[in-house]
Please model this.
Amino acid sequence: MSYQTINPASNKLVKTWTDHNDQQVEQALKTADDLYHSSWSKGDIQPRLQVLKKMADLIDARVEELAKTASVEMGKLINQSRGEVQLCAQIARYYAENAERFLAPTRYPSELGEAWVENHPIGVLVAVEPWNFPFYQLMRVLAPNLAAGNPVLAKHAANVPHCATLFEELVTEAGAPKGAWTNLFISNDQVASLIADDRVQGAALTGSERAGSAVAQQAGKYLKKTTLELGGNDVFVVLDDCDLDKAVKAGVGARLSNCGQVCTAAKRFIVHEKVADAFFEKFTQAFRDVKIGDPLDESTTLGPLSSSTARDTLVKQVEQAVSKGAKLHIGGKVVAGEGCFYEPTILSGITRDNPAYFEEFFGPVAQVYVVKDDEEVVKLANDSHYGLGGAVFSKDIARARKLASRIETGMVYINSASDTSAELPFGGVKRSGYGRELSDLGIKEFVNQKLVVVS
Ligand code: NDP
Model:
């Protein structure tokens, strides 16, 4: 029994869920594959778009219930859970309104004749998803692929089975036929067997490098396409000419939102030496003002980490960073009591030989680096295995734009923290993965872009 709801605010077991056996997995795959070969997937797009529209309405009507489920299951502050749920409705609505246009044939002027590219579904996909945004991560895969006609078998993280179940129920209630989205409580070995099956045509994964590498290896062996959205070690650049109060406020949110468990969270703060003292003072004060507590209490500003394992990993990382010479400005301790709470923490003085320099800290721990000029910003920002997002704060937009184009990541925001929205592509480079989710780019990842030429 690996799928369990454990409330991280109390560390108490709420419910154990029943795994799916191989026979059930085979039945789910057969149903999904049959659906792919039916007029549902291959025919008129409108019925599929109607499901997305209905799903958006259903989500809007159930925000409180869904948000509370996420908060109890993985510790997200209730207000942030509401935001996540509302974003899911927006994504469903966005594809309902735009997918037909994205999938329309594109003409290609050619000497060989009248030519165009059509977009067709490719078949059953496997989605492997993490717990940090237990609804949004699923919607990023469902909405474009439901519109495109690809049935999805979803393996959610083992610690968010209630969210996984509710999401599947919503898809069904919205009118999707059986097999369009199937939640499976399965092991990594069962995921590997699914990817190997001829009826599966691709896999989308969001999660750790370890999981991404395992799924991509298996998919590569069987020549299946993958998209990977993995970790990040995003920079948050504070230049000497920026609005410092605005930068600090955004930086605190960017590091502590979702208790720091966001792939695009600001993890490395790169601060110009001219504003470093003032930054440290304001940033540390803001961390001191944080109210740690129950994620369901509206006044709480920092909830628990998602699990005791997540907290223990962070404890080890911070201890190691300090033992190798990092300076601890604030925090660095587990909060006494039952839940998986950890103090908001600021580290500086991290040298390149300190393992922390290259590690992603998936929790409320900020690393601060002080630099003397823009060249040093670029050098430090790009000295990372990751390349997901980043932020640059400056009043000189031309200067910020120059830096943004030199930072090796899939996304950069100027004068705001990294964010996400249905119409903007999301994804990274280097060990942060490949492929894009959301926007018009996301819906093109798993379609057959078929060329037709009439001579
Ligand atoms: P994992 O990568 O282990 O979990 C993400 C998903 O992948 C889960 O559904 C997990 O299943 C599944 N998974 C793990 N290994 C395999 C495998 N070999 N084959 C198939 N599926 C697999 O993340 P963790 O929860 O362990 O978090 C660890 C780190 O991952 C974090 O500290 C962070 O660095 C990164 N991470 C990044 C996220 C992002 O948004 N990019 C989100 C979450 C984590 P199961 O739960 O059953 O193990």
Observations:
- The chain has a mean pLDDT of 98.
